[in-house]
Amino acid sequence: MYEYLTLNYTQQQQKDLIEQWYQHLDEVFTQTPKEYFVQHHENDPSRQQNVIFIATDLSTKKIVSTVKLFTREMFINGDKCKVAGIGEVSTKPEHRGQGLSSKLLEMAHQYLTNNGYMLSFLFSNKYSAMYHSKGWSYVHRDITVEDVNEKIVPESDGHSLLLERMDTIDSTTLESYFQILVEQKPIDQQQGSIVRSIQYWKEWIIHNVEPHSKGTIGWVAKDSSTNTIVGHIITSLYGENSDTMAVKDLGSIHNKTQQNTCIKTLIKLTIRQYQTCLLNNQSIKYVQYPSPLLITSVLGGEQTHKLDKSMMVRLCASNNNSVPSSSTTCESLFPLDSVIYWDIDKL
Q1: Distance between CA atoms of residues 33 and 316, nearest Å
Q2: Mean pLDDT of 2-18
């Protein structure tokens, strides 16, 4: 027999209970260190609105299954809409096959519907068929993969930008730049992108790059004439030989006419940093970024497109002006040619 509970922020402050939840996640996700979940929870800027659903075994009083809601705002049709990400879906092996996750997922969906959320979203590859059967729809993201057609990207490309690692910049300077991004949002108002407050930048973004998150590097671009930050890029390497640079986030405070040039320069400079400083001249063969970001190539290399099929969405309420009618589908809300959900925002 099981008991199902909904934990609000006040209940999450109970030290014994939250520690038991951390321990549960550590036991289920054996390849992920417990500290990851602690940081994931405590550095979430929306933690006071986040909700955790748990199932406990009545015989042992132990947590055996959980689902967590991460509350967010998302740009949909130009409006800021109340949404929630789903994460920490976990059931202990000996309690699987009894519908515990399904029950908790439905509790979460009902909670969101009752509280005026527009939709929920999640990311999954291995269990996407299960989520699809429970009501979540696939939202494909178009990713451009471009060949890096030069072994070393030229140091000088007619620009005046200097690239520095984000973790070497003092917090006051970074916060001033983040504040400009929050006020201007030059790139981020793309369909499906997360609305970022200054608190979100300081807590979520910063804690998802080095030194807090190994392998994901944040960079800032400074104007060499003024020494002010004018853009940033967050990247990581992946692939069998770590030869693909993935752009996980990118921003610029330039106006639209200058934005494309700045974006391309940021990507080029970052490739050069990897190849000359971080990889001992090992070659970066490919760079990938969301296709709606640019309409022309970065390096002039051959381009291919791939579909990222890991994102899934389920509508909760249709009383928002951004949703035309109850017949609106997730696919129509997130057209392939305009969706940018940055990987740095993944739950």
Answers
A1: 33
A2: 90
Tell me, yes or no, whether 75 and 191 share the same domain. Answer: no
Same domain, 31 and 160: no
What predicted TM-score, i.e. pTM, was given to this entire model?
0.91
Same domain, 200 and 314: no
Q: Are residues 63 and 116 in the same domain?
A: yes
Percent of the chain topping pLDDT 90: 63
pLDDT in tens, 21-44: 999 999 999 999 999 999 989 999
Residue ranges making up the domain that contains 61: 2-140+309-345
Q: Are residues 180 and 50 in the same domain?
A: no
Average pLDDT, the chain: 88
* 289, 143 contact by CB (below 8 A): yes
Query: Do 154 and 290 fall into the same domain?
Result: yes
Residue found by looking up tokens 């027999």 in the block = 1
Check residues 129 and 324 and name the one with the higher pLDDT. Answer: 129
Q: How remote is the C-alpha of 120 from its chain's centroid? A: 14
**Total number of domains constituting the chain:** 2
Q: What CATH number has the domain bearing residue 111?
A: 3.40.630.30
If you average pLDDT over residues 130-148, what whole number do you get?
93
List, edge to edge, every strand of the sheet that includes 137-138: 2-7, 51-57, 62-76, 79-91, 119-123, 311-315, 137-138
- Which residue from 308, 307, 327, 309 is spatially nearest to 318, judged by alpha carbons? 327
Three-state DSSP state, 167? helix
Other CB atoms within 10 A of residue 336 CB: 14
The secondary element (H helix, E strand) that includes residue 18 is: helix 15-28
Residue with tokens 């009752």: 114
Both 90 and 10 in one domain: the answer is yes
The C-alpha atoms of residue 68 and residue 107 are separated, in whole angstroms, by 11
